[in-house]
Backbone:
């Protein structure tokens, strides 16, 4: 019982200085990383740099160059699924064939889902080369393309998929 009533107060240790130093160093590293990220160009600026010198929709040469591209939807691999919030996402797969005689090193596509009245429900622009495909598209070659579109409801009339070239650049 004497040991029970005995006052054995041990000295409390102070704050661990090594822990504080480690936290300070970690905070400096995170702050330095954020500071370095501010020097990165935005996604839109990077896209413009990658498509520098490209022919865009509306230019006179654009129509003649895009006639040599054939884009088809791979209906066997195109799928849809429900997301956690109840919306539907479509995974659209396709093939791009270069029938021209020039090597393509920059390609931007617009993929859209249309209803039975040919009205666009959802659409999205994707930068295929050089973002999704690092290589170029040589003449008479075919490459696979992929786009994910989400935000559909079960009431949407998703009748067909449309692909359209919105920018093209040659080597």
Residues:
């Amino acid at each position: 019982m004497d040991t029970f009533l005995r006052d054995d107060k041990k000295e409390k240790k102070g704050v661990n200085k090594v822990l504080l130093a480690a936290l300070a160093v970690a905070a400096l590293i995170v702050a330095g990383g954020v500071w370095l990220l501010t020097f990165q160009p935005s996604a839109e600026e990077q896209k413009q740099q990658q498509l520098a010198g490209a022919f865009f929709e509306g230019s006179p040469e654009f129509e003649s160059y895009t006639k040599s591209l054939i884009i088809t939807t791979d209906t066997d691999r195109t799928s849809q699924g429900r997301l956690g919030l109840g919306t539907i996402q479509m995974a659209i797969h396709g093939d791009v064939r270069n029938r021209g005689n020039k090597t393509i090193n920059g390609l931007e596509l617009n993929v859209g889902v249309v209803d039975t009245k040919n009205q666009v429900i959802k659409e999205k622009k994707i930068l295929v080369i050089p973002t999704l495909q690092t290589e170029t598209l040589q003449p008479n070659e075919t490459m696979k393309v992929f786009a994910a579109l989400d935000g559909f409801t079960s009431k949407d009339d998703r009748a067909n998929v449309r692909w359209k070239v919105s920018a093209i650049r040659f080597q």
User: Anything to note?
Assistant: The helical segments are 2-5, 17-37, 43-50, 60-66. The longest strand covers residues 88-98.
